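Lab notes, practical 5.
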Amino acid sequence: MSRARRAGLALLAAPLTVFLSAASTVAQDARPARAYLIDVPGVSFEELLGVPEVLGLTRSGGAGLMRVQEPVDPFPPYPEVDPGDMSAIVTWEMDPSAMGGLDVVGETIRERVEAEDADRLLVVVMSRTGSAEMSAEKDELHPLVMGVGAPSELFGAEGDPGSLTSDTTRRDGVVTDLDVEPTVAAFLGVDAPEDAAGSPIRVVDELTPFDLHERYLAQRRMYVPIGTAAALYVTLAGLLGAVFVALGSRVPELARRVVGWACLSAAALGTGLLAAGHLPQLTYAAALPFVAIVTVFGTMAFSPLERRSAVWVPAGIGVGVLTFFAVEAVLGWGAILTPLLGGSHLDGGRFYGLPNVAIGLLVGASLWVAQRFPTWTGVGVIVLVALLASMPYLGANLGAGVTLFATAGLWLAVRERHRLGPWKGVGVVALAVAGGTAIVLLAHWVSPLPTHVTRFEETSRGLAGIRDTFVDRLGIGVDLIRRNPAALVPVLGLPLALVVALRPPAAIAATFERWPAWRDAVLVCLLAGIVAYVANDTGAAAAGLAFGLGLGGMLGVSLLAGPGKMVEP
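Output from the prediction step:
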């Protein structure tokens, strides 16, 4: 076991050890403690908690929504438990269809547990496989119930059902199957298996997560239709923007301005789809007006800046977007539990911090702000955003950190290209990526709590391990495109938009000539989108909004900078 994992297990086991009282010393007892691991296949959270005996067990512990991350044996051998003595760990599989229903399962669990002669028991009841009904509802969260106590008291406790969490998820009411091994190990006072990747489950003073599960199912039903509608809106705005830019003065000014604002609204739209996760009720009646209001007012609120110049409008929008993310990080990323942009923490890839789908939005917003400041101030803005996205207690996203540090290097290299030249510019970008990544890795290495980055550091074995991880992440990105061909739009669109930015038509060229910093912001945004694709496993998702803000910004500012609007103060 690595030094970091041993330190993390010792720290994380403390609350559970307090809760379990003297569990680590029961080996000296005449009747040692035992752990019961019971798998009930093919049942949902509500179905399992509907069994009276299982619900009663939650009053001696709690229940959680479990994300199954690895299809492995949930009951492996424990290195410090005598393999010839199975009294310490008892494992059962109770299939309701074979036993006569869930009522029989519940009665059997209670009978066997109450007949136990151990002083203290850890009873874990879970379901690691779904059902046809769960698949129809897109339900990928499974139930896990845990109770701790004397056999005669486990089902007779009073009070409200409790809730579970772990430091793997950092979310009340949410655990993973990988947490079972460290939980059993902490209860028995032994080391978890060498390859154990989770954290001990602990009880928290919160309600059992029925409401969270209902909200999760609503998000699963809604985010694809709403996301598709948002994508169609952005696509239509982009196509009209391209046509109107090509037609120039032949398009009425009002139509040109409406489409210009629509192109710039991609940033507010993405933010609104994320912020919808804070809505009290996740319904179409609540979500659609909310997203529309945020999109319109989050864009048009900065229309007074147009009197100064058209390029101040995206700068104002960028400030609004970055403010939202700063507040969200301070509040613990609550909106990302059930966002309508996709990338929910409950999907299991990332239980806390910045989701990959938001990386492109941060890239575009930081550049929209940076283009109104001197070069080094702009670099500082982007670096601060990179730290927000990647530090352990903030975004905790290594791919986002790599992308944004690359963005900072690209911004400096492009803005100072006449002084640096091409090769020094490449060196600046490489130094920014290497230095920024080293800072992120060091911060996560010394962090008291393990993170996604910590696990990456522990599982990577030198350059070969990093290479294998990189190839594997690219494979995940290709598989994402295979399953969702629409993800090809930003992947193919980024290089095409980059060609347009490098060899712009007359109307866009005129805008770039008036505001060279804006030209550089568009160019770097598109380049950073390509970096985002390479640096993240869900590359198409990470690059999507970089494409939207790069192309939308290029078209939107050009359309707003019509006759009488192109004078720089």
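Observations recorded by the TA: Residues 1-30, 78-86, 563-569 have pLDDT under 50 and may be disordered. The beta strands are 34-39, 61-67, 89-93, 121-126, 141-149, 163-165, 174-176, 202-204.
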